Amino acid sequence: MANNKKDKNLFFNIIILYITKMNDKKVIWITGASSGIGRSLALKFAKEGWTVAASARRENLLQELHTENENIHSFPLDVTNTEQCKAVFNDIVKKFENIEICVFGTGIHDPKSQKFFNLDKIRKIMEVNYFGTMNSINSIYEYYNNKKGGQISIISSVAGYRGLPAAGGYCASKSALTSFAESLHFEMKRVNVRVCLISPGFIKTPMTDQNDFPMPMIKSPEFAAEQIYIGLIKNKGFEIHFPKAFTFIMKTLRILPSSWYFKIVGKGMKKIDY
Fold first, then answer.
1. How many secondary structure helices (H) and strands (E) does the chain include?
2. Do the beta carbons of residue 105 and residue 152 sit within 8 Å?
3. Does domain 26-271 bear CATH number 3.40.50.720?
4. What confidence tens digit (pLDDT) does each residue in 173-203 have?
5. CA torsion, points 261, 184, 75, 30, in degrees to nearest 10?
6. How many CA atoms lie within 13 A of 74 on its CB side?
Protein backbone atom coordinates (compact mmCIF):
# COMPACT_ATOMS: atom_id res chain seq x y z
CA MET A 1 0.00 0.00 0.00
CA ALA A 2 2.81 2.37 0.94
CA ASN A 3 4.53 1.72 -2.40
CA ASN A 4 1.29 2.37 -4.32
CA LYS A 5 0.90 5.68 -2.50
CA LYS A 6 4.48 6.65 -3.35
CA ASP A 7 3.91 5.70 -7.00
CA LYS A 8 0.75 7.84 -7.13
CA ASN A 9 2.54 10.79 -5.55
CA LEU A 10 5.41 10.42 -8.00
CA PHE A 11 2.96 10.30 -10.91
CA PHE A 12 1.15 13.45 -9.77
CA ASN A 13 4.44 15.25 -9.16
CA ILE A 14 5.55 14.44 -12.71
CA ILE A 15 2.24 15.76 -14.09
CA ILE A 16 2.54 18.96 -12.05
CA LEU A 17 6.15 19.43 -13.17
CA TYR A 18 5.12 18.92 -16.81
CA ILE A 19 2.31 21.47 -16.54
CA THR A 20 4.62 23.94 -14.81
CA LYS A 21 7.21 23.61 -17.55
CA MET A 22 4.52 24.09 -20.20
CA ASN A 23 3.40 27.28 -18.47
CA ASP A 24 6.99 28.50 -18.21
CA LYS A 25 7.45 28.33 -21.98
CA LYS A 26 7.51 31.69 -23.66
CA VAL A 27 4.93 32.23 -26.38
CA ILE A 28 5.24 33.99 -29.74
CA TRP A 29 2.47 34.70 -32.25
CA ILE A 30 3.57 34.76 -35.90
CA THR A 31 1.32 35.67 -38.83
CA GLY A 32 2.23 34.71 -42.38
CA ALA A 33 3.66 31.50 -40.93
CA SER A 34 2.73 29.09 -43.73
CA SER A 35 5.67 29.93 -46.03
CA GLY A 36 8.78 32.03 -46.53
CA ILE A 37 10.25 34.00 -43.64
CA GLY A 38 7.28 33.34 -41.36
CA ARG A 39 7.58 29.58 -41.72
CA SER A 40 11.32 29.55 -41.05
CA LEU A 41 10.85 31.89 -38.11
CA ALA A 42 8.21 29.62 -36.57
CA LEU A 43 10.56 26.64 -36.86
CA LYS A 44 13.47 28.63 -35.42
CA PHE A 45 11.58 29.75 -32.32
CA ALA A 46 10.07 26.29 -31.83
CA LYS A 47 13.54 24.74 -32.05
CA GLU A 48 14.70 27.19 -29.36
CA GLY A 49 11.97 25.92 -27.06
CA TRP A 50 9.33 28.59 -27.55
CA THR A 51 5.63 27.85 -27.94
CA VAL A 52 4.64 29.19 -31.35
CA ALA A 53 1.12 30.25 -32.27
CA ALA A 54 1.28 30.14 -36.08
CA SER A 55 -1.29 31.89 -38.23
CA ALA A 56 -1.95 31.94 -41.98
CA ARG A 57 -4.83 31.23 -44.34
CA ARG A 58 -3.60 27.82 -45.49
CA GLU A 59 -4.47 25.51 -42.63
CA ASN A 60 -2.91 22.45 -44.28
CA LEU A 61 0.51 24.13 -44.30
CA LEU A 62 0.13 25.11 -40.65
CA GLN A 63 -0.62 21.47 -39.82
CA GLU A 64 2.56 20.45 -41.64
CA LEU A 65 4.47 22.86 -39.39
CA HIS A 66 2.94 21.25 -36.30
CA THR A 67 3.98 17.84 -37.63
CA GLU A 68 7.56 19.10 -37.99
CA ASN A 69 7.62 20.53 -34.47
CA GLU A 70 4.99 20.01 -31.79
CA ASN A 71 5.85 23.38 -30.23
CA ILE A 72 4.04 24.98 -33.18
CA HIS A 73 0.27 25.33 -32.85
CA SER A 74 -2.07 26.14 -35.72
CA PHE A 75 -4.38 29.17 -35.59
CA PRO A 76 -5.73 29.68 -39.14
CA LEU A 77 -6.38 33.33 -39.98
CA ASP A 78 -7.22 35.72 -42.79
CA VAL A 79 -5.67 38.99 -41.62
CA THR A 80 -8.00 41.04 -43.83
CA ASN A 81 -10.87 40.00 -41.54
CA THR A 82 -10.87 42.39 -38.57
CA GLU A 83 -13.18 40.35 -36.35
CA GLN A 84 -11.37 37.11 -37.10
CA CYS A 85 -8.08 38.69 -36.02
CA LYS A 86 -9.63 39.58 -32.66
CA ALA A 87 -11.16 36.12 -32.23
CA VAL A 88 -7.93 34.28 -33.09
CA PHE A 89 -5.83 36.37 -30.72
CA ASN A 90 -8.39 35.82 -27.96
CA ASP A 91 -8.12 32.06 -28.59
CA ILE A 92 -4.33 32.26 -28.34
CA VAL A 93 -4.52 34.17 -25.05
CA LYS A 94 -7.06 31.70 -23.63
CA LYS A 95 -4.78 28.78 -24.49
CA PHE A 96 -1.39 30.21 -23.54
CA GLU A 97 -2.21 33.28 -21.36
CA ASN A 98 1.08 35.19 -21.63
CA ILE A 99 2.09 36.21 -25.17
CA GLU A 100 5.62 37.59 -25.07
CA ILE A 101 6.20 38.47 -28.76
CA CYS A 102 4.01 39.11 -31.78
CA VAL A 103 5.52 39.10 -35.27
CA PHE A 104 3.26 40.30 -38.07
CA GLY A 105 4.61 39.13 -41.41
CA THR A 106 1.72 38.50 -43.77
CA GLY A 107 2.53 39.95 -47.19
CA ILE A 108 1.85 39.64 -50.91
CA HIS A 109 3.43 41.05 -54.06
CA ASP A 110 2.59 40.77 -57.75
CA PRO A 111 5.57 42.22 -59.66
CA LYS A 112 4.28 41.32 -63.12
CA SER A 113 1.04 43.23 -62.64
CA GLN A 114 2.81 46.30 -61.25
CA LYS A 115 4.83 47.18 -64.34
CA PHE A 116 1.80 49.31 -65.21
CA PHE A 117 -0.67 51.05 -62.92
CA ASN A 118 -3.33 48.62 -61.70
CA LEU A 119 -5.67 49.98 -59.06
CA ASP A 120 -7.21 46.62 -58.12
CA LYS A 121 -3.80 45.02 -57.55
CA ILE A 122 -2.55 47.99 -55.53
CA ARG A 123 -5.70 47.94 -53.42
CA LYS A 124 -5.27 44.20 -52.76
CA ILE A 125 -1.62 44.61 -51.78
CA MET A 126 -2.47 47.44 -49.38
CA GLU A 127 -5.39 45.47 -47.95
CA VAL A 128 -3.17 42.50 -47.06
CA ASN A 129 0.22 44.05 -46.34
CA TYR A 130 -0.81 47.24 -44.56
CA PHE A 131 -4.38 46.89 -43.35
CA GLY A 132 -3.86 43.20 -42.55
CA THR A 133 -1.12 44.29 -40.17
CA MET A 134 -3.37 47.05 -38.80
CA ASN A 135 -6.05 44.43 -38.08
CA SER A 136 -3.46 42.35 -36.25
CA ILE A 137 -2.23 45.35 -34.24
CA ASN A 138 -5.82 46.25 -33.41
CA SER A 139 -6.39 42.78 -31.95
CA ILE A 140 -3.43 43.02 -29.55
CA TYR A 141 -3.31 46.74 -28.75
CA GLU A 142 -5.36 46.67 -25.55
CA TYR A 143 -3.67 43.44 -24.38
CA TYR A 144 -0.17 44.94 -24.55
CA ASN A 145 -1.26 48.24 -23.04
CA ASN A 146 -2.47 46.29 -20.02
CA LYS A 147 0.44 43.82 -20.02
CA LYS A 148 3.03 46.64 -19.93
CA GLY A 149 5.77 44.49 -21.39
CA GLY A 150 6.66 42.31 -24.37
CA GLN A 151 7.43 42.96 -28.04
CA ILE A 152 5.45 43.85 -31.16
CA SER A 153 7.35 43.23 -34.39
CA ILE A 154 6.37 44.26 -37.91
CA ILE A 155 8.00 42.73 -40.99
CA SER A 156 8.43 45.49 -43.55
CA SER A 157 11.14 45.53 -46.25
CA VAL A 158 13.99 47.65 -47.57
CA ALA A 159 11.54 48.20 -50.45
CA GLY A 160 9.86 50.62 -48.04
CA TYR A 161 12.90 52.92 -48.04
CA ARG A 162 12.24 54.42 -51.50
CA GLY A 163 10.06 53.83 -54.55
CA LEU A 164 11.32 51.03 -56.80
CA PRO A 165 10.44 50.19 -60.42
CA ALA A 166 7.40 47.93 -60.97
CA ALA A 167 6.64 47.86 -57.26
CA GLY A 168 4.44 50.89 -56.59
CA GLY A 169 1.85 49.10 -54.46
CA TYR A 170 4.38 46.92 -52.65
CA CYS A 171 6.77 49.80 -51.85
CA ALA A 172 3.87 51.97 -50.69
CA SER A 173 2.60 49.23 -48.37
CA LYS A 174 6.04 48.66 -46.86
CA SER A 175 6.77 52.38 -46.53
CA ALA A 176 3.46 52.77 -44.70
CA LEU A 177 4.40 49.93 -42.33
CA THR A 178 7.79 51.50 -41.65
CA SER A 179 6.26 54.87 -40.77
CA PHE A 180 3.55 53.24 -38.68
CA ALA A 181 6.10 51.20 -36.71
CA GLU A 182 8.01 54.40 -35.91
CA SER A 183 4.82 56.05 -34.66
CA LEU A 184 3.80 52.98 -32.67
CA HIS A 185 7.23 52.96 -31.00
CA PHE A 186 6.42 56.23 -29.21
CA GLU A 187 3.01 54.99 -28.08
CA MET A 188 4.15 51.64 -26.73
CA LYS A 189 7.34 52.90 -25.11
CA ARG A 190 5.12 54.54 -22.48
CA VAL A 191 3.90 51.10 -21.39
CA ASN A 192 7.29 49.35 -21.65
CA VAL A 193 6.46 47.46 -24.87
CA ARG A 194 9.21 47.21 -27.48
CA VAL A 195 8.22 47.86 -31.08
CA CYS A 196 10.59 46.34 -33.63
CA LEU A 197 10.75 46.97 -37.37
CA ILE A 198 12.12 44.13 -39.51
CA SER A 199 13.54 45.18 -42.90
CA PRO A 200 14.82 42.27 -44.99
CA GLY A 201 16.56 42.57 -48.32
CA PHE A 202 15.95 39.90 -50.96
CA ILE A 203 15.00 36.57 -49.37
CA LYS A 204 14.32 33.47 -51.47
CA THR A 205 10.63 32.78 -50.93
CA PRO A 206 7.64 31.88 -53.12
CA MET A 207 6.99 35.63 -53.37
CA THR A 208 10.45 36.60 -54.64
CA ASP A 209 10.41 33.59 -56.99
CA GLN A 210 7.95 35.68 -59.06
CA ASN A 211 10.59 38.34 -59.77
CA ASP A 212 12.08 38.31 -63.26
CA PHE A 213 15.11 40.48 -62.49
CA PRO A 214 18.45 39.90 -60.71
CA MET A 215 18.21 39.98 -56.91
CA PRO A 216 21.59 40.94 -55.41
CA MET A 217 22.78 39.29 -52.19
CA ILE A 218 19.65 37.13 -51.94
CA LYS A 219 19.53 35.02 -48.79
CA SER A 220 17.61 31.97 -47.58
CA PRO A 221 14.56 32.23 -45.29
CA GLU A 222 16.56 30.31 -42.68
CA PHE A 223 19.18 33.08 -42.74
CA ALA A 224 16.39 35.62 -42.28
CA ALA A 225 14.91 33.68 -39.36
CA GLU A 226 18.30 33.52 -37.64
CA GLN A 227 18.81 37.28 -38.02
CA ILE A 228 15.34 38.05 -36.71
CA TYR A 229 15.74 35.68 -33.76
CA ILE A 230 19.03 37.32 -32.76
CA GLY A 231 17.52 40.77 -33.18
CA LEU A 232 14.45 40.01 -31.09
CA ILE A 233 16.10 37.99 -28.31
CA LYS A 234 19.64 39.30 -28.01
CA ASN A 235 19.46 42.90 -29.24
CA LYS A 236 17.32 45.83 -28.16
CA GLY A 237 17.35 48.14 -31.18
CA PHE A 238 14.35 49.37 -33.16
CA GLU A 239 15.23 47.98 -36.60
CA ILE A 240 16.48 44.54 -37.62
CA HIS A 241 17.83 44.77 -41.18
CA PHE A 242 19.75 42.26 -43.28
CA PRO A 243 21.90 41.35 -45.10
CA LYS A 244 23.95 44.24 -43.80
CA ALA A 245 25.95 44.89 -46.99
CA PHE A 246 22.76 45.22 -49.04
CA THR A 247 20.81 47.25 -46.49
CA PHE A 248 23.79 49.64 -46.21
CA ILE A 249 23.45 50.35 -49.94
CA MET A 250 19.68 50.81 -49.64
CA LYS A 251 20.04 53.12 -46.65
CA THR A 252 22.57 55.20 -48.61
CA LEU A 253 20.16 55.47 -51.54
CA ARG A 254 17.49 56.52 -49.05
CA ILE A 255 19.28 59.76 -48.16
CA LEU A 256 20.30 60.78 -51.70
CA PRO A 257 18.54 63.66 -53.45
CA SER A 258 15.78 62.42 -55.75
CA SER A 259 17.64 63.51 -58.90
CA TRP A 260 20.65 61.37 -57.97
CA TYR A 261 18.49 58.46 -56.93
CA PHE A 262 16.54 58.45 -60.22
CA LYS A 263 19.77 58.52 -62.27
CA ILE A 264 21.35 55.62 -60.35
CA VAL A 265 18.27 53.41 -60.46
CA GLY A 266 17.54 54.39 -64.07
CA LYS A 267 21.01 53.23 -65.14
CA GLY A 268 20.46 49.95 -63.34
CA MET A 269 17.17 49.42 -65.17
CA LYS A 270 18.87 49.96 -68.54
CA LYS A 271 21.56 47.39 -67.73
CA ILE A 272 19.02 44.67 -67.07
CA ASP A 273 16.65 45.85 -69.84
CA TYR A 274 13.79 46.20 -67.40
1. 10, 7
2. no
3. yes
4. 999 999 999 999 999 999 999 999 999 999 9
5. 50
6. 15
